[in-house]
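Protein Record: Sequence and Backbone Structure Tokens
======================================================
Tokens: labelled as protein backbone structure tokens, with as many entries as the chain has residues.
Question of interest: how does this chain fold, as expressed in backbone structure tokens?

___
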Amino acid sequence: MKIFLLSVVFYVIYLFFKTKKSLHMLQQNRYNRGYKYLKWIKGNLKKNYWNFEILIFFLPCFFFLSDRFLGIVFNTFYFLFLSFFFYRSKKEQKKVPLHITARIKRLLGTTFILYFLFLLGCYFIESRVFSFFLLGIGMYFNNIIVVLANFFNRPIEKIVNRHFYLKAQKKLQNLSGLEVIGITGSYGKTSSKNILNDVLSSKYTVFKTPKNYNTPTGLMISINEYLDKFNDFFIAEMGACRKGEIKELCDLVRPKYGILTKIGVAHLETFGSEEAIQKTKFELIESLPSDGIGILNADDENQVNYKLKNKVQTIWIGIDHVQKCDVYATDIKLSGEGTSFKCHFKKSKKTLLLTTKLLGKANIYNILASVALGEALGLGEQELILGVKKVEPVLHRLQLKRYYDMYLIDDAYNANPEGAKMALDVLKLMKGKKIVISSGMIELGSKNDSYNKELGSYMANIVDIAILIGEKQTKSVQEGLLENKFKKENIMIFNDILESLAYLKKLNEKGAYILLQSDLPDAFNEI
């Protein structure tokens, strides 16, 4: 027993670090909801399995050694694996670290129980070379073991979720003076949430879901830990990857008001169809009570063509189809410093001149939705004007920053066709050399390649230098660029964002504008 334990010292150390990495990827893939993690494993077989650990398959070649020497060889293997792991980890970019939540701790515990039972079973196998070989196979397929641990923990997670769900519901019921506003859409949710928060704060005490807390767990945390009796409004951002998920969130928070931003093809792969996306987003508006208000976009065909199944009051906003709008914008002036426009209220016949630091046409829609709801909730003209004026750019969403002697337009969270084009339109407004850093777009199902090629075609006539992240990931973007006669020497390909930024730092093109677009999660790094 003592010899066996000494033989697996580096195995156990390596097991801890590899499991932590597997849990990181599981967390980024929504704990395998909708088999997302398994799909990620399938789509990255080479990265997951064609690595230095494949050496373990040569272990049976040492069958002639004594148990003591086999243990030394096994330990040496895992000492080398551990060294390679740390060497490679130093080169990898970690944009979002593993969040050590209570769920992750439970998963870590279950994973180690499974491995302990596995180790115990291998100890009792007479052939030591075979037992070591089995241990190696167990480590090689560590991410599958983590999936099993996640599966075994499902009943526990349901109990935990139910507890916090009921706690959140009870708290909301006790806050009788609170009114809930839901915001959903394919993109623009976080920007709309922040704009609405700033506008309503001119008159009311408002709480918005922090960061990207737009899942059932995120809303429960927001309610249980942050919401209090002094809030007049609770703005709940609502995200979804499949049909029924917005309804699930509405059942929890019971919104009275709702804003539907643009509907597009984000998460098309998990939704399955554009019709499913449309129906899911409208679950918010169709959950509103008859005395509620839904804000809809008249320039979005997916909203105009949809037949509502309830009789909630609707307010239509827009820019292009003003005849259909209750609140609309004219005299728009877009620049690298911000945006100004006239906002018209058809019913009250009011016209306001609104100015903002925010960039791009997309943010005009977000502002229109916020002022439309703000006016309906009793905000005066000056409160609306000042509310819009004080809005700050949202982190990683068309956020303009200084980068050495250059300027960086950080739009890293935008990874959808319409948002990507609008960001390029903002870049087009800028003076000086134009550079884009793009990882392409993901989760667009069978249309992924065509949308990425279209993105490459669009950027070809705007940018001077295209920096692409991941050769395989951006293959279609490259095709779109080259087919539109973009110079091949002006296309740079790097493994991750950090490498590209280091290149730009060295380049330091004075006065250049860099659009940082679609910085994908760590799970999509090609190294």
